[in-house]
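SEQUENCE-TO-STRUCTURE ENTRY
===========================
What this section holds: a protein sequence and its matching fold, both as plain text.
Tokens: labelled as protein backbone structure tokens, with as many entries as the chain has residues.
Question of interest: how does this chain fold, as expressed in backbone structure tokens?
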Amino acid sequence: MGFATELLVVPLAGAGSDRYGRRVFLVVAPVLAAAGIAVLPGASLLAAVPSLGLLAAVVGVSRLVEGAGSAMAAPATLACWPTAPRATGCDGAG
């Protein structure tokens, strides 16, 4: 579920980081991913409650939020390196 979120969010995060600046995404992305991961232990507390649907919903939302946070970081982080080595696969030493 997190990977599907990343596939959907990466293009939007790339466009947003071009428009609003990379710094915003480099700060917000880890916070969002950490929030998604922090919710996950709460699911273990819900395991004592017999509602499997509620447990699945909490885990699903947690994975969606964590995936969005991870996806937001990728374009902003890649933009920190020059485009020529990224496009050609060459580090410029050759």
User: Anything to note?
Assistant: The two ends are 41 Å apart (CA to CA).
